[in-house]
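name: query_chain
kind: protein
chains: 1
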Amino acid sequence: MRRLLVKFVCIIASIMVLVTVLACSEPVAQTATPQATPAAQTSTEDKPITLVFAIFEMQNTVQSTGTLVPYMDEVEKRTGGRVKIEPHWNGELVNIMDTYSAVVDGTVDMGYDAPLMHAGLFDMDAINNFSRYDSVCWKPSRVYYELTQQFPELQEQYKDVKCIYNGASCQPAIGTTKKQISKLEDLKGTKILGSSALAGQRFEALGMVPVSVPPSDTFTGLQRGTIDATPLATWMLIDWNEGEVLKYLVNASASTPIFTIIMNNDKWNSLPADIQEILMDLNEWLGDKNDQSQLDAHKKYWDLSISKYNTTFTILPKEELSRWDALDAPVMDKYVEDMEAKGFPAAKIKDAYITLRDKYSAPEYAPDWAEAWGK
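structure:
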């Protein structure tokens, strides 16, 4: 019995020693946890900044592959991987008409926008859309960029967002579905896509009837006869399948539509200063890349549309297209008068625009196919 008692006491003593050891070991476990925290914090700090980018364009168009995709790659490259842009194509997050408001309220970080589609917000930007019918401005993004550098009033229109890119597209033709245009008089009554109020006024001066539809509805409108014509770059014939319905093209440079990349103000202010500087430095680079991409694509898609859709091209002489330009002058004068009334130095901006437009329409900037295009 005594042996059992001794054995029981030994067991109890062993248990008490074990409990004491475990209790003494608890501070070691507690000190291990704080040591892991700095590593976790470092990992979070090294995580790249992701910017959600809403884009109305499809991913495979010339505008996307030639301009937007290289831009996103260049941002990542120049920031050393510290910034990654997360694109959402084809209006996946927000349609073109709501892009601006989505960026303003922070629904998305960035947006690829067409400012002239927002009536009353960026009216002074419309000066860039006064392309001459009888010539082609080969570097419309360069014109827009240089104009914004000369006149801060243009950038002040974007006070509710941060505009980090100002660009424009070369659209050197008008396409029609049923009627081949050979002279000014053939335009009368033609229903044409007018992407802004000013574009509509210009087309009305030529005798056409402007119709406003979103870019996503252009093909359907042409197919159903809601519209008979549209300004375009030849790549749209293939990438947007418009060659299926546009049977005729005439070499009238009716439009240089404006596109911007805008960012939410709070998101912009949260970025480190060096990243902000990189993004702003890319403005000029991207505009030049866009201009070159458009010109490179034009001749390729011009030839491709002939072989694929048997598109008919009419090359009008400069003398005929100069008749169209003469009707444009009063529209520009009225526009300048209206913008002056709104407080813009519109007359000075107009003069600067014409100087830049004509400069970059000169033969020294023209591609090798320009002469065949009658330019």
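note: The first helix runs from residue 2 to 46.
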